[in-house]
Amino acid sequence: MSYILCKTKRSEIPFYIENISVNIYSIEELCFYLYHNIYLLDETILNERLCYWLRDELGMDVLARRMMQLLDQEASVSAVILPAFKEIHYLSHEEFRMFSVRLNQFESQPRVTKQKIKGDYLFGHEKYMNAVKVYRTCLSMQGKDITGSQFTGSVYHNMGCAYARLLQMDEAKECFRKAWEYLSTHSVLRSYLTAVYMAGDEKEMDEEAAKVGVEDKTLAELKQKIEETRDSLWQTHSGERYAGILEYKKQGKKKEYEEEMDRFLAELTDGYHRNTGF
Prior knowledge:
With 278 residues, the protein is an all-alpha fold. It folds into two domains: 15-107, no CATH class; 111-214, Serine Threonine Protein Phosphatase 5, Tetratricopeptide repeat. It is built from 14 helices and two strands. A two-stranded antiparallel sheet has the order 1-2. Strand 1 (15-17) and strand 2 form a beta hairpin.
């Protein structure tokens, strides 16, 4: 995919950025990505592989050597990417100054906070599985970086939302349950009860609602809203396929359920790639 009109050499072999499934073919496209995705600028992108690609595919030996030196010196992110911008005069001095301010503000955040911001960014760009991976990394850092219950709860909640978008309702339910333990807000409770219901367990939903004192009227209204949403989803091809997969789960056929769910998610992913070109 080409973002802007390229004035320099385009490579035959692209530089693949896994986080958002993008192929980069030119220095212009690389600069565009660096400028617009500051929350994803880490060692998964700024590494030796990028330098080798610049050298071998674009013939930019001097730029590649300079960026490699900066990486070896463990220079700041802004320092590492500045030579790329300068190479094609991508930004004016003032534009780069403002960009550096934004980047430095992000870099000054605690590591665990930067991970959550990265996960939220991926979620916003519909990269749900990658977002889940980042959220899990974020939670694994809790012991090293001290955070409050509100922060932890928000990570669990957002991870639950990512799982829900992937139609993995059991995982979503567990995440929302943990979020409820930390946050105990009405919106999180609604997310949890919705996930329980969408996972096909109305009895459990009633039991959980009773534990926290949800009124019958409120519970009935929530169920109605869920049913209206689910009915519209079931009428689609994907919805009908998912309903069939759930039958394996209800019948206790764990192996068949997991195999069909993996195939289903793979098909959804392939469809996304076909539709976007990524």
